[in-house]
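Human: We require from you a standard protein entry with sequence in single-letter code and fold as tokens, and nothing else.

Assistant:
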Amino acid sequence: MPLAHSRSRSMIERCCQVLAFPLLLLAAGLAFAHGVQGDDKAFLEQNSGMHLMMYLYLGAKHMVTGYDHLLFLFGVVFFLYRMRDVAAYVTLFAIGHSATLLFGVLGGIHVNAYLVDAIIGLSVVYKALDNLGAFQRWFGFRPNTRVAVLVFGFFHGFGLATKLQEFELSPDGLVPNILAFNVGVELGQLLALSGILIVMGFWRRSETFARHAFAANTLLMTAGFMLIGYQLTGYFIS
């Protein structure tokens, strides 16, 4: 094995060892914190009528703090260098989660939150494996990424819907409130994505990006498996 390749692999392994444990702790901690809590929970339970700005704020906040959604977006844009490609994929994701968020809440379609969130974790694992080229090596072809992003977007939308379905929302002003929440989700997504792209832009210009891309996606996959395990455990013990 060439010395340079050996050193590069050793560096990646050390990077995984150093970063894996904090990442796992972060994923576990966020898993317990994910959802609508505190003053936001009290607002949803106690207020009726139209509160467009508040619902817009809640939608944006949920997306910005929604680690599972952000991990998936991070995986989606990891190897996208052109803004038109980023826009195309993010638009497909937005269409998917907007449709099922509105359909779930306004149509009264209830799904098991644990199972939906487990599938969201699976979406993170899928994108990490896709970035690593695993499907091409294992099966000889790569699944259509755009279709996958749209389909997983549907599940992410149901995940958002389950958070609101935990509360007895007043029917007074429900439709405009949920529409405002969805707009807030899109604004939050744009805000979070902007931060991700800025960081990725600086990282891609450094020499470490190519060397550490494998390690980053391995950690992303690990986080996805952690989310799946946490949600399935909740499903079986609830």
